[in-house]
Amino acid sequence: MPTAAPLRIDTLTLFPQMFPGVLDASILKRAAAPLPDPANPQHVRPPVADYHVHNLRDWSADAKHQRVDAPPYGGGPGMILQCQPVWDAVQAVTAHHPAPPRRVFVTPKGRPLTQPLAAELARAPGLVILCGHYEGIDQRVLDRLRDDDDGGGLDEISLGDFVLSGGELPALVLIDAVVRLLPGALGHADSARDDSFAPGARGLLDHPHYTRPAAWDGRDVPAVLQSGDHAAIDRWRTDTAERMTAQRRPDLLGLPHDRSTSPPPLVVLREAASEDRNAILHLARTHGPLPGPGPSLDPAGLADLLAGPDAITSLLAEQDDRLIAHLPLVALTHDTETATRGMLALGPTIVHPDHWTLALYRALLREAVRQARDARAARLFTFSDDPQLAETGFSLAADEGFTSIYDQFAPALHTLDLKIRRPIPPGLIRWPSPF
Fold first, then answer.
1. Which has the closest alpha carbon to 16: 174, 168, 176?
2. Whole-angstrom distance, CA of residue 425 vs CA of residue 381
3. CA distance from start to end of the chain
4. Helix or strand run (H / E) with residue 383
5. By the 8 A CB rule, do 327 and 368 touch?
6. Which of 10, 177, 230, 397 supports an S-S bond with 415, CB 3.0-4.6 Å?
């Protein structure tokens, strides 16, 4: 099997001397070097990244002084990088790539660098990063690069709402964020999967971490982490990640940044009991399920489902002791067996329209995943066109070999592998009779 070529990353800068120290250390150094496999010393992992740093002055038309900047039209402080040397430099390094690379200009005016964007760039055939300096780059060459689709266009990416002296430090941050996502760059395949914002962390901040000693300066490692109960440890990590995200980055949960206003009444999630049945059916008759792909379930069908054995559990959301949302988990069957083999599905979600928020939806989804794990389910299925599913770890069921009798909704059928040692073979899955 041919070895994949390393990701070539070209950086254009006025200060190339800023790069060797960072690129020649830690993970970035390991990624650019062949490494023996500790488990199999005869196997050597080839480099996964290939760095090239270029001085923009090498493309200056000023042979004597190598100037590449000039004062701004309209007056003002500072100097502006000129069009021709920037254009010539980008075109020259682009030519080294067998396929059009992703070309990036790091600037405070760009779109924010996020974990999904870093993952997207890690899948690119190559990268060319343009670093500005002084007051900026002539807008005309940026516009032309953006319009140059044959050469890869131009993305503008920002690290945040602040200004640095040049693009060199943001370029190094971007390189690190991308390279650590390349297969083989990190020592453990799951290291990047469970980072903050990553799919394994469901888009949340990472949970706290602890190591030896168990007690330090009067502070103890949480007892649950020393218990050996892996299910309890997983729940603790999920709970602490959710609380930390709500406190520090409420925007990731769809909550407002502004804490100066009074918080909304607390929403409580809990498992439904038999006495909640009438309130659930009233919510269903009054508002019905959220629109979206998937098999329908009218109030009568929901009543049959709740009365039968196929509703494994139901999640409720309450605010001020008033039911505002309901999400059932139902048992599925496989075409090769009549009995359920650890397969659950999210039933239709019903939410009072006055209380619908993205934060509530995400909270219900996370709680449903946790309930499915507690029920020792091997896989969880759902029909949805929500792009947030990927951040929760769901993938297209068709890619895993699963189909359903609802062919018209096939592109929306997603599944989550819950990592139970009870694999579900690919095949046709069936919803219970009320659907």
1. 168
2. 14
3. 47
4. strand 379-383
5. yes
6. 397
Regarding whether 337 and 293 lie in a shared domain, the answer is yes
Catalytic residue among 16, 72, 100, 108: 108
What residues are paired with 157 via a beta bridge? 111
Q: Are 100 and 124 in contact (CB under 8 A)?
A: no
Q: Tell me if 324 is assigned to some domain.
A: yes
Residues paired with residue 50 on neighbouring β-strands, in sequence order: 8
Q: For residue 68, is it within any domain? A: yes
R_g of the chain, CA atoms, integer Å? 27
Is residue 85 packed enough to be buried (19+ CB in 10 Å), middle (13-18) or exposed (0-12)?
buried
| Packing angle of the helix pair 277-287, 299-307 (nearest 10 deg) | 160
Q: Residue 234: is it exposed, middle or buried by C-beta count within 10 angstroms (0-12/13-18/19+)? A: middle
Q: Say if CB 296 and CB 349 are below 8 A apart.
A: no
CA distance 360 to 187: 37
Q: 135, 156, 206, 318: which one is catalytic?
A: 135
Q: Which amino acid is at 108?
A: P
At residue 426, what is the residue type? P
Sign of the CA dihedral running 418, 423, 429, 433? negative
Q: How many beta carbons lie within 10 A of that of residue 169, not counting itself?
A: 15
Residue with tokens 């929901």: 302
135 is catalytic: yes
Is residue 220 annotated as a catalytic residue, yes or no? no
Of 124, 149, 179, the residue that ends a domain is: 179
Active site residue 37: no
Asked if residue 244 lies in contact with residue 205, where contact means CB atoms within 8 angstroms, the answer is: yes
170 is catalytic: no
Where in the sequence is the domain holding 175, given as residue range(s)? 7-179
Structural domain count of the chain? 3
Q: Strand 80-81 and strand 136-137: pairing?
A: parallel
Cα–Cα nearest to 109, from 137, 128, 77: 137
> For each successive 10 residues of the chain (435 residues), what is the average pLDDT?
81 98 96 83 90 97 91 89 96 95 94 91 96 92 89 90 93 97 77 49 74 81 88 84 75 58 64 86 82 76 81 84 88 68 84 80 85 86 78 84 82 83 80 76
Out of 102, 180, 202, 362, the active site residue is: 180
CB atoms within 10 A of CB 153: 14
Q: Catalytic: which of 50, 120, 148, 195?
A: 195
**Beta carbons of 183 and 194 less than 8 angstroms apart:** no
Asked if residue 309 has a cis previous peptide bond (ω within 30° of 0), the answer is: no
CATH of the domain at 301: 3.40.630.30
